[in-house]
Amino acid sequence: METNSRETLQADFDTFDISEELGFVLEEPLTHLPDYYRVWLDLANNLTHLIESRKLRDLVHNMPVLSPDLLSNHRELRLAHLTLGFISMGYVWQEGQHAPILPKALAWPYWLVSRRLGLPPILTYADSVLANWKLRDPTGSFLFVTLFPLAFIRHRSTPDHLRLKMF
């Protein structure tokens, strides 16, 4: 009886991507996606500069519409959601006139990734906290003081001064 309950519990953990050790915190989040998605990571890695120079929106408008179908596992989907979430926030809050609508090249893959994950297409706690970490020292232990965010926001007093840093 105990073995059957344990197997059932493990199956539930696996179904919902829950870690026995870390709970809902994503184990070993990825920092890279397949090369097909390089444009997303290039934008994400340069968000602060692109927002400050007011170039992000132009680059997003010229970005190809990429299919998320090549994202093959939960960790890739979570990194894509985190990346697209930060790009979306930067796009909306870049200085100048606020952008009420995301362009298709950003909105469509973000929506599809969100659907696959069962998350809303907005930067969530699941993104910004639970899947947004790496160990400062990969050989170290999982303690709060040994964690470093993959992406974080620095801001002054207004959203117009949003500061973003990925990876």
Describe this protein's structure:
- Helix 2 packs across helix 5 (74-93).
- The strands form two sheets. This protein has a two-stranded antiparallel ribbon with strand order 1-2. It has a two-stranded antiparallel sheet with strand order 3-4.
- The chain has one domain.
- It has 167 residues and is mainly alpha-helical.
- The protein contains seven helices and four strands; from the N terminus they run H-H-H-H-H-H-H-E-E-E-E.
- InterPro entries: Indolamine_dOase (IPR000898), Trp/Indoleamine_2_3_dOase-like (IPR037217).
- Belongs to the indoleamine 2,3-dioxygenase family.
- One of its GO terms (biological process) is L-tryptophan catabolic process to kynurenine.
Which regions contain 5 or more consecutive residues with pLDDT less than 50?
144-148, 155-165
Helix content: 40-55%
| Average pLDDT rating | 77
Largest sheet: 2 strands, antiparallel
Rg, rounded, reads 17 Å
Strand order of the largest sheet: 1-2
> What separation lies between the terminal Cα atoms?
45 Å
Spatial shape: globular
Whole-number count of domains? 1
Structural class: mainly alpha
Binned strand content: 5-15%
Pfam family, one: IDO
Keywords: Iron, Metal-binding, Tryptophan catabolism
GO molecular function: heme binding; indoleamine 2,3-dioxygenase activity; L-tryptophan 2,3-dioxygenase activity; metal ion binding
GO biological process, one term: L-tryptophan catabolic process to kynurenine
